[in-house]
Write a structure and sequence with these properties.
Blueprint lengths: L1 H19 L5 H21 L17 H5 L36 H24 L5 E3 L4 E3 L7 H5 L1 H6 L3 H10 L13 E2 H18 L5 H15 L12 E2 L4
Antiparallel strand pairs: 1-2, 3-4
Helix pairs in contact: 1-2, 8-9
C-alpha cells in the first residue's frame, strides 16, 4: 500500500513538474516519468525497504543472565546433543615438573630483579590506571582500547599468582565485581583481543588457583555468554569486529 501511494505521488509530482517547464513531446514526457518511477523502484529496493537486522535494545547495565537467555536470530537447527553419563577424566595439561633445584646467588638475584620489575609496573598501573585497559607510562595516564574492562588487570591475574603476589592478586579479584561485561563505551569490540585477554585471563587464573575464587568462573561465563552472541550469524561464523549493539 505504501509503495503504490509513493508511485502515484511521484507520477503526480512528475506531471506537475513537466507541465511547469517548456512543452515536451509525449515521448519525452513518458520517458521522464519512466525514469522517475525506475529511480523510486531502486530506492525502495535498496533503501527504505531493504531488510534490516533488528537491534537488541540493551539497558545501561545488563546482567549475564539476560545475555544467556537472549533469543538467537540464526539458531542452530540441528545441534549435536551433549554426551550423557559420567564424564571421562581428562589428564592435566600442565607437565608435572620436578621441584626446582636450589638457586645459586646469581639465579636468585635475577629472580628478585624480575619480581621487582613486575611489582613496580603493577604499582604504576594501580596508581594511575586502575580498572582501565592500559597505562600510558610516560604521561602517567590511561587509555581504553579493549572495551574498557580493565584488560591489564585481568590479563595479569595469572602473573600475579605465579609471582606469589597474593595480596595484589586478591585485590584484583575483588575488583572484578566492578567490571560489567554487558556494556561498553566502545561501539565495536575486537572479538579476538577480548577472547585472549579477558576470557583467557580469567580461565588461566581460575585454573592456576584451582577454583579457590568462584568469581573467576562466574565472570568467564558472563563474558562467554556475551561473546557467544557474536557467533549468531547466518553461517555461524563469528564477527571479528563486532558492533555489539546491533
Amino acid at each position: 500500500m505504501r509503495l503504490q501511494f509513493t508511485y502515484s505521488t511521484l507520477l503526480l509530482l512528475g506531471a506537475m513538474l513537466i507541465k511547469s517547464f517548456k512543452p515536451l513531446s509525449r515521448r519525452d514526457a513518458l520517458a521522464t516519468l519512466f525514469l522517475l518511477a525506475f529511480a523510486l523502484y531502486i530506492f525502495n529496493l535498496f533503501g527504505s525497504h531493504h531488510e534490516t537486522v533488528p537491534e537488541i535494545s540493551l539497558p545501561e547495565r545488563q546482567r549475564s543472565s539476560q545475555w544467556a537467555s537472549r533469543i538467537e536470530r540464526y539458531p542452530v537447527t540441528s545441534p549435536k546433543p551433549l554426551p550423557k553419563g559420567r564424564p571421562s577424566k581428562i589428564p592435566r595439561i600442565q607437565h608435572p615438573f620436578p621441584h626446582a633445584p636450589t638457586l645459586d646467588s646469581r639465579s636468585s638475584a635475577r629472580r628478585t630483579a624480575l619480581q621487582q620489575a613486575f611489582s613496580r609496573s603493577w604499582r604504576g598501573y594501580k596508581d594511575h590506571a586502575w580498572l582501565k585497559d592500559e597505562l600510558t607510562p610516560i604521561s602517567g595516564g590511561s587509555r581504553n582500547h579493549f572495551g574498557g574492562w580493565a584488560a591489564t588487570l585481568i590479563d595479569s591475574l595469572d602473573t600475579l599468582w605465579i609471582m606469589d603476589m597474593k595480596l595484589e592478586f586478591e585485590e584484583a579479584v575483588a575488583a572484578l565485581n566492578d567490571i560489567d561485561f554487558s556494556t561498553t563505551d566502545e561501539e565495536e569490540i575486537n572479538l579476538f583481543e577480548t577472547t585472549i585477554r579477558y576470557l583467557g585471563g580469567l580461565l588461566s587464573a581460575h585454573d592456576l588457583t584451582e577454583d579457590q575464587y568462584p568469581i573467576l568462573m562466574e565472570k568467564a561465563l558472563e563474558l562467554g555468554d556475551m561473546l557467544y552472541a557474536a557467533f549468531d550469524t547466518p553461517n555461524r561464523m563469528p564477527i571479528a569486529r563486532w558492533q555489539w549493539q546491533k
